[in-house]
Amino acid sequence: MIRDIFTFYNVYRAMRMIHGVYITYSFFRWFLGNFYTYTIWLLTFVYNPFIVKQIKDTKLKNESEKDVHK
Length: 70
Hints:
Blueprint: H1 2-46, H2 55-69
């Protein structure tokens, strides 16, 4: 009987450890996921190296090129 109780105790400890690992993993996944999302969101306000030109900008560029060739 003692061996069975000890076996159940070991199973209980293993289940508690596995549950703790799962909860810790879930927390870090949630925390780092939110951290990554908000960091990327903040970086969009800082600098955009690939500035997309608007239609108005391309017209101005073409007009300035015409002036140079005259």
